Amino acid sequence: EYTPESAKDEIWQELRMCYMLQPFGFTADDLRDRLIKNCPAVLDAIHPNALGAAFRKASNRGKIRETGRRIKSRHASAHGRKQPVWERA
């Protein structure tokens, strides 16, 4: 709701690239890294929950699924929190 449509489109495109290029395992860190590299302004424009919403949407659409594995986040802002590893469905 608080995320601009153009930013949602860019998030969706980068998430799609994650599951196309890394079909056997990727995390929210991988998506964040792609956004930092390819469209850094998006991270300033989005609501903090937008990335999680994109994963939920992709999962509900049958594009990705959780592997059951969890790994520590590489990003300092996550404080080593464990995150799910996703794969292409």
Which key features would you list for this structure?
single chain; 89 residues; alpha+beta; two-stranded antiparallel sheet; 2 strands; globular
Task: Write structural notes for this entry.
- The protein has helices at 5-21, 28-38, 41-45, 50-60, and strands spanning 64-72, 82-88.
- By secondary structure, the chain is an alpha+beta fold.
- The chain has a two-stranded antiparallel sheet with strand order 1-2.
- Helix 1 packs across helix 2 (28-38) and helix 1 crosses helix 4 (50-60).
- The termini are far apart.
- The model has no long low-confidence stretch (mean pLDDT 93).
Concise synopsis of the structure shown:
49% of the residues lie in helices and 18% in strands. The protein is an alpha+beta fold. It starts with a helix and ends with a strand.
Q: Mind sketching the topology for me?
A:
Layout: H1 5-21, H2 28-38, H3 41-45, H4 50-60, E1 64-72, E2 82-88
Helix pairs in contact: 1-2, 1-4
Write down the overall mean pLDDT: 93
Secondary-structure-based class equals: alpha+beta
Q: Estimate what percentage of residues fall within beta strands.
A: 15-25%
| Largest β-sheet summary | 2 strands, antiparallel
Helix content: 40-55%
- Spans with pLDDT under 50 lasting ≥5 residues? none
Q: How far is the first residue's CA from the last residue's CA?
A: 27 Å
Order of helices and strands: HHHHEE
Shape: globular
What's the gyration radius in Å? Answer: 12 Å
